[in-house]
Design brief:
This is B2 bradykinin receptor. One of its GO terms (biological process) is positive regulation of cytosolic calcium ion concentration. Forms a complex with PECAM1 and GNAQ. Interacts with PECAM1. Receptor for bradykinin. It is associated with G proteins that activate a phosphatidylinositol-calcium second messenger system. There is one protein chain. By secondary structure, the chain is mainly alpha-helical. It folds into 2 domains: 314 residues, Rhodopsin 7-helix transmembrane proteins (Rhopdopsin 7-helix transmembrane proteins); 32 residues. It is built from 11 helices and 2 strands; from the N terminus they run H-H-H-H-H-H-E-E-H-H-H-H-H. Strand 1 and strand 2 form a beta hairpin. Helix 3 packs antiparallel against helix 10.
């Protein structure tokens, strides 16, 4: 069956934390027929670029976040509380990056989902959890920096590694809980307008999408941004004061905090456009956008903003390397230790091989 390109927005982006344009409130199925042709060329252009872009983001994200996790797991010193939160953030980004190739293949096949019902649900739940968990891990690392710099003389359980691990487990569970609508309503369905078996959101009522939009706007963005902004404001003030007084350790704290603030800034730059688009989508649901072309513009805007958001998972490892002097030092220690073990193993194998060739009658077994 030929593919109707005007139906592609309904099959759009992979995530439900990043709702596909067709999963948006009042989606393109309800637009007037004369509006559909206005953005067909734009969707054809986007669909041609998406597979390559997703493959690039996935490759960078998998390699970069895998290296970050290796450094945190193999370093000699115990992980600090901030390391635990940033390590879990890298794990969330790694899961996200690992799921993007499924959607790259899906877009390349004109949204004909080839991986079955189980992976349709699993991949999209994982992508949705990435955003929810990432923003909460960033809140936790901001609170940790706030307690370390603004209230250093007030001991808190939150600055203990054991409590940090418990909080991370709670974040993963909460991310799964908030992703339940994705688990329940993502299904493989035949879409007649597109002529494909697609992995789409199949909400029983548009009110579900409204509730999901509001939940993610408020719990997944507004409240976390308020908490992060409050902590960051006081952190910057504390750093300025410590530098002015030339307190011991101020320079080291400044470097480590600069990395955290950079990660926060990049996260906001990557995710704010999509959250704004989601809010406008909610307004569109209530009919506050009077002209039909606005729906198409919003659909394309949501699509573009979602792929900007995906890139955050690939950017974070570069921030660790560029701004994290302590991280670079630990990474060198880990890779030097791994190289030393490899060299020792190779030298030991060479000695055994030489002994076997020069003394064939000598038993090599210890007993």
């Amino acid at each position: 069956m030929p593919l109707n390109a005007s139906a592609w927005p309904a099959l759009g982006a992979p995530s439900d934390a990043l709702d596909a344009p067709g999963d948006a409130l009042g989606g393109p199925w309800e637009l007037l027929e004369d509006c559909r042709s206005n953005s067909t060329e734009a969707w054809l252009w986007l669909s041609a670029l998406q597979p390559s872009y997703l493959a690039l983001v996935s490759a960078l994200g998998v390699v970069g976040n895998s290296l970050v996790l290796c450094v945190f797991l193999l370093q000699r010193k115990p992980c600090t509380v901030a390391d635990i939160y940033l390590g879990n953030l890298a794990l969330a980004d790694l899961v996200m990056s690992s799921c993007l190739p499924f959607w790259a293949v899906n877009v390349a096949r004109h949204y004909q989902w080839p991986f079955g019902q189980a992976l349709c649900k699993a991949v999209n739940v994982a992508i949705a959890m990435n955003y929810l968990c990432s923003v909460l891990f960033l809140v936790l690392v901001s609170v940790d920096r706030y307690l370390a710099l603004v209230r250093p003389l007030r001991p808190s359980r939150l600055r203990r590694a054991g409590w940090a691990k418990r909080l991370c487990l709670g974040v993963w569970l909460q991310g799964l809980l908030l992703s339940l609508p994705v688990l329940l309503f993502r299904n493989v369905r035949f879409v007649a307008d597109a002529g494909v078996e697609a992995c789409i959101l199949d909400y029983p009522h548009p009110a579900w999408v409204l509730q999901y939009n509001v939940t993610l706007n408020v719990l997944g963005f507004v409240l976390p941004v308020m908490a992060v902004s409050y902590c960051s404001w006081h952190i910057v003030g504390a750093l300025r004061e410590s530098r002015a007084r030339r307190l011991p350790g101020a320079r080291a704290e400044t470097r480590s905090t600069q990395l955290v603030l950079a990660v926060l800034a990049v996260f906001l730059a990557c995710w704010t456009p999509h959250q704004v688009g989601r809010f406008l989508d909610t307004l569109d649901y209530f009919g506050l956008t009077p002209w039909c072309l606005w729906g198409k513009v919003l659909d394309i805007g949501l699509e573009l903003s979602s792929y900007l958001a995906y890139s955050n998972s690939a950017i974070n490892p570069f921030l660790f390397v560029i701004l994290g002097r302590s991280f670079r030092r630990r990474a060198l220690e880990v890779f030097r230790a791994a190289w030393a073990r490899r060299s020792t193993s190779r030298d030991g194998h060479s000695v055994v091989s030489w002994a076997a060739s020069e003394c064939p009658n000598v038993r090599q077994q210890p007993f």
